Amino acid sequence: MHKNFKNIDKVVFGRGSFDEMDSILAEKRVENNQFFLFVVDHYFKGKSLENRIPLKNEDMILFIDVDVMEPTTEQIDTIRDSVLNSKGLPSGVVGIGGGSIMDIAKAVSLMFTNEGSSTKYQGLNLIKKPGIYHLGVPTISGTGAECSMTAVLTGPEKKLGLKCDWTVFNQVILDPDLTETVPLDWWFYTGMDTYIHCIESETGILNNAFSHAYAEQALKLCRDIYVNEGSGQTPENNEKLMVASLMGGLSLTYSEVGACHALSYGLSKILKMRHCFANCIAFQHLDDFYGESVSEFKKMLSHHNVELPQGLSRNWTDEQITEMALVAYNLPHMWNHALGSDWKEKLTVDSIKELYKRL
Ligand code: NAD
Ligand code: ZN
User: Fold this and answer.
1) What is the mean pLDDT of residues 233-240?
2) CATH match of 184-357 with 1.20.1090.10
3) CA 150/CA 148 separation, integer angstroms
């Protein structure tokens, strides 16, 4: 079956485009109880960007510390309940931050109109009603969460997204200037998430002309940003990375991610390792899957003096490695893409454990 992918309704791109938000929101302010909910990465509290947020009298703003934990179902339910109890249904939700804030904004917008706990809706097409208007402003580039049709949440039982057409943002504002304060290590890890999305999208059975066109261009941009002459955190490269992130996300949506993301999910679920960092930890050891791309990745690492920890698995128990291998094994769509439909003949939980022992 062919994928029928829901794209973002509207996109603004360009340095300084953040200031278009006021006029973009104006026509939406007549909806529901006529106020907006802003969810903002707490990094921006007290920074100049805070004063540029077009807050009106009745609007609500929540600053969220995403370093404490990745978005949880409980957090989403609490935000939804407290806003509904205090002011009723907003006209819409605006998320300003990285992948974590993008997911919070998407999930909260859906949960305003879907009853009960968000745990009920973790999975594909379980959401019953469209959410309210939601606008995303990424402030760190790489995950592609700005364009994906999922909002990844950790619940009491599973780490799984609210995934459906209605999850996708109605509007995205891509202002590369907002990323200029990203620390070098995060700039590297999140950008490498884009690079790995493209390599994995390209290297598997679901690759096609559509996904290839996005991946090819996004990889070209990644090389400019991370390895070619003129590489580094410059305003021009911040523009390129924001576009590459979007294109990498679109590429994998029309294709799939593979072995690295499967291993990364295990690292995140069992060891609480952050998504982009976990991808880097795994990718450096996957020469047999991704060949020259791993050499290129290592070149980019040394080019920016980023050092990844080695020998981590020496401190993991066999039980932890088994748990991670089970998480990874239970992502059949990724292995199907990476190894082919007969992947079960090529891969076992034990062979995945061996992959983890390389890390
Ligand atoms: P993040 O949102 O967790 O933020 C990472 C760090 O960067 C935080 O410390 C944050 O405060 C800081 N930061 C953000 N913008 C900044 C700026 N402009 N200047 C300085 N610091 C800044 O990072 P992320 O890697 O973008 O997102 C990871 C999350 O995204 C995970 O929860 C993961 O599950 C989720 N994710 C979602 C999708 C999806 O399709 N929905 C895909 C991949 C990952
Ligand atoms: Zn990723």
Assistant:
1) 97
2) yes
3) 6
Using alpha carbons, list the distances in angstroms from residue 246 to 126, 239, 352.
Answer: 25, 11, 30
Q: Does ligand 1 have an atom closer than 6 angstroms to the CB of 145?
A: yes
CA 240-253-224 angle, 5° bins: 20
Prediction pTM value: 0.95
Q: How far, in Å, CA of 23 to CA of 37, rounded? A: 16
The preferred substitution site among 47, 150, 152 for testing ligand 1, maximizing ligand atoms within 8 Å of CB, is 152
Q: Where in the chain is the domain with CATH 3.40.50.1970?
A: 10-179
Q: How far apart are CA 343 and CA 336, in angstroms?
A: 6
Tokens of 157: 């039982």
Q: Which amino acid is at 298?
A: K
Distance from the alpha carbon of residue 94 to the mean position of ligand 1, in angstroms: 16
φ, ψ (nearest 5 deg) of residue 247: -70, -35
Tokens standing for residue 23: 């006029």
Answer for the pair 149, 164: CB distance below 8 angstroms, yes or no: yes
- Give the side-chain half-sphere CA count within 13 A for 200: 31
Give the separation between CA 270 and CA 325, rounded to whole angstroms. 10
Q: Under a CB-based contact definition with an 8 Å cutoff, are residues 164 and 129 in contact? A: no
Note the CATH number of domain 10-179: 3.40.50.1970
Q: What is the pLDDT of residues 155-210, one digit of tens each?
A: 888 888 999 999 999 999 999 999 999 999 999 999 999 999 999 999 999 999 99
Kindly list the protein residues that place their beta carbon closer than 5 angstroms to ligand 2, a single-atom ion. Answer: 193
Taking Cα atoms as reference points, which of 52, 148, 48, 38 lies closest to residue 97? Answer: 38
Ligand (nearest to CA of 142): 1
Q: What is the pLDDT of residue 247?
A: 97
Which part of the chain has CATH 1.20.1090.10?
184-357
Using CA atoms, how far apart are residues 165 and 65, in angstroms rounded to an integer? 28
End-to-end CA distance of the chain: 36
Any idea which of 15-24, 63-72, 174-183, 240-249 has the lowest mean pLDDT? 63-72
- Please report the sign of the dihedral spanned by the C-alpha atoms of residue 5, residue 37, residue 274, residue 127: negative
Which residue type is seen at 240? K
| Cα gap 316→344, rounded to integer Å | 26
